């Protein structure tokens, strides 16, 4: 949340002070009064609550069924971590998905809806500054969207309560979800100030969200195809398989299972680090990467792999970001860790790019709200 | 202009009368290829009601938007009490009350809440807002409906709410775009009385309207615009002095026609529902004299009345010139 408010206060800081903030608050009050009186919002909130509850319950039930099946047909007992991690991940993914779907609906008609209703010019003709109107609309839309997160909090808490998660996970997850929702709201409000018709701006905002969620994946995938390069590497010698080797020190950094030898040679490699920034813009990557997970060590069963969806997404993205220099076996003659430590987070980059996009749209929206207006979009009437 | 006055040290109260009220000098504004307003001059002095008259699409609303400081003119200047909205934004906004032709109301809010919010947006002292809002609701007779959501208000009531909204910060300039449309006759009379009161308080009031007979009673002066240009500036007295068309009907149309021909007046036979003739008379004395002559001559005059308002006469003449 802190990242967003830092940028949101930028125009406010330019010499208006308390009066400026008071104006924003008045606009927020006006907006929220209207939203709180519309029945649709409550209906959506109720549907949201029921759906999230249903998903939580189904995840828990399916985990239980799976465990019973495993107990019935084999002697293999999985480590008893409880369903917490899984419920948490499923609910988190679901909440993020629906938050991304709900936020445009709550924000993308904020300005041009008022324009169509003839109430925007009434605000513009008062002493309110365009920035106050825009920020007021943004904070109101954000607050309305945050109510949906609040409604889903109980289920994230259940996820933690049922298994090996800490309250810290919930707090970080909620914080990141709130920021992501804020980004989408800012995009929606910005577009709504630019587009003439509410329908158009809502569609464009949904497309922007789809662009972040799917477009970033597609762009990354296509981008990797164009990022062929070479890397200097020598030969990797893998160790023999040594089953059930006890791990001496759990916290020690993991040793790679191979040694490097021989002359360095140019090897073809995909320079994913050139296009990883696109992947970083994905809201799922941002949220997953920001949630802390314990650095796993070799469990003794050979290859260590990320456990759970959040970790997999985070590791995958970091792998792409590190590029062949950091991940190719024996690049530059050095053995590479299989597992990238949390010390190289990706989410600040992704969030930064998202904030840049949202900030740009908000700035363009602010320009279109300035009065006396010099330029009007074709076919729009100011009043 | 203001700067020059300041340099020679004339106190604010002695500024030129031209600086009071709202005026536009040679303003132009085009939207793409459409020249909505071209070199239009407009002045509405303080304490007067100025009508803005013109056919649909003449640029009335565009001019009002520029006067309301929502739209920037491509060229020319707008001044409100001598201040330029581009540079003294807040000062100008405090002085302008604007009632648009579209009734923007927040439907789920009550009339009282709407006025309270607007008062806050104008940064009125917080302690005084409740009384001010109650006072305005009384003034536009919405006290009974003050705590109903605005969506239950009728169009006329919403119009009155819109007027209260435009007046909440006690502006010195009031811009009303088609304020009488959708009002019942009783409310129109009320609006007329209210606008005269506001003008008497020293506000300059600009009314754009199509209902010209209404404006005869309200307006002190009229600015006629057409095709984005100021066509004529005329006070209501001037309009009345330039002659007015009277419609006369008589039980015996032929006798009436004969008598008028005998007096030597040019007249026109109207093809309305009732047989009547109409003719232009210069002033009220002429009308009185003609009526007396007709009655003395034994013509059975059944009606003798102005066929149109004074402003309407000018308007129709302008329409004629355009064709």
Helix proportion of chain B: 25-40%
Task: Give the mean pLDDT of chain A.
Answer: 80
Q: Strand-residue fraction of chain B?
A: 25-35%
Counted by DSSP, the helix tally of chain B is 12
Strand element count of chain A: 2
Radius of gyration of chain B: 23 Å
The H/E string of chain B reads: HEEEHEHEHHHEHEHEEHEHEEHEH
Instruction: Work out the largest interface and the residue count of each chain.
Output: A-B, 30 and 36 residues
- Fraction in helix of chain A: 55-70%
Q: Which of globular, elongated, flat, extended, rod-shaped describes the shape of chain A?
A: flat
N-to-C order of helices and strands of chain A: HHHHHHHHHEEHHHH
End-to-end Cα distance of chain A, whole Å, is 35 Å
Kindly name the structural category of chain A: mainly alpha
Question: What average pLDDT do the residues of chain B reach?
Answer: 83
Coarse morphology of chain B: globular
Walkthrough of the structure:
The complex is a heterodimer of chains A (383) and B (323). Chain A is mostly helical and 383 residues long. Chain A has 13 helices and 2 strands. Chain A has a two-stranded antiparallel sheet with strand order 1-2. In chain A, helix 3 packs parallel to helix 7 (130-162). The two termini of chain A are 35 Å apart. With 323 residues, chain B is α/β, with parallel strands linked by helices. Chain B has helices at residues 2-7, 60-67, 89-95, 111-121, 129-139, 155-167, 185-200, 212-218, 236-241, 253-263, 284-296, 310-322; strands at residues 22-31, 34-44, 49-53, 75-80, 96-99, 173-177, 204-208, 221-226, 229-235, 244-250, 268-270, 276-281, 301-306. In chain B, strand 11 (268-270) and strand 12 (276-281) form a beta hairpin. Chain B is globular. Residues 1-18 of chain B have low confidence and may be disordered. At the A-B interface, helix 2 and helix 6 of A face helix 2, helix 3 and helix 4 of B.
